[in-house]
Amino acid sequence: MSDLTAEGCCVRNAGIALLVGMRVVIRAREFESLTGIVRWLSGEFCGVEFDRPLRGAVVDHLVHLHATFTPERHAVG
């Protein structure tokens, strides 16, 4: 997961056939499962819009825990 914001994130596709508009569940150890909709696809990456926005403190905590998480305000490209 990268480019994390309260509204969504970029996810690396783990070999799963995804389509724009598809509902997905993102599971990680640090937080409960997140549900959302695939909004875009580009190669092995996709953009997911969360069903419910994350609180700012949650985003900050996850970015602090994982150096690979880039908050959108600092994302390059």
Q: How does this model look, in words?
A:
The chain has 77 residues and is mainly beta. It has one domain (8-70): Beta Barrel (Thrombin, subunit H), CATH 2.40.10. It is 13% helix and 38% strand. The protein has 1 helix and 4 strands. The chain has one helix at residues 56-65; strands at 8-12, 23-28, 31-42, 45-50. The protein has a 4-stranded antiparallel β-sheet, with no helix packed on it. A hairpin with a 2-residue loop joins strand 3 and strand 4. The radius of gyration is 12 Å and the shape is globular.
Task: Describe the SSE topology.
Layout: E1 8-12, E2 23-28, E3 31-42, E4 45-50, H1 56-65
Antiparallel strand pairs: 1-4, 2-3, 3-4
Total DSSP helices: 1
In CATH, the topology is named Thrombin, subunit H
Task: Name the strands of the widest sheet in spatial order.
Answer: 1-4-3-2
Topology pattern, helix = H, strand = E: EEEEH
User: What count of domains describes the coordinates?
Assistant: 1
CATH architecture: Beta Barrel
Give average pLDDT, whole number. Answer: 81
Structural class: mainly beta
Proportion of beta-strand residues: 35-45%
Q: In percent, how helical is the residue content?
A: 10-25%
Our Rg estimate from Cα atoms comes to 12 Å
Largest sheet features: 4 strands, antiparallel
The rounded distance between the terminal residues' Cα atoms is 16 Å
What's the overall geometry? globular
Organism: Novosphingobium lindaniclasticum LE124
Protein name: PilZ domain-containing protein
InterPro entries: CAP-Gly_dom_sf
Q: Which descriptors apply to this entry?
A:
4 strands, 1 helix, four-stranded antiparallel β-sheet, single chain, mainly beta, Thrombin, subunit H
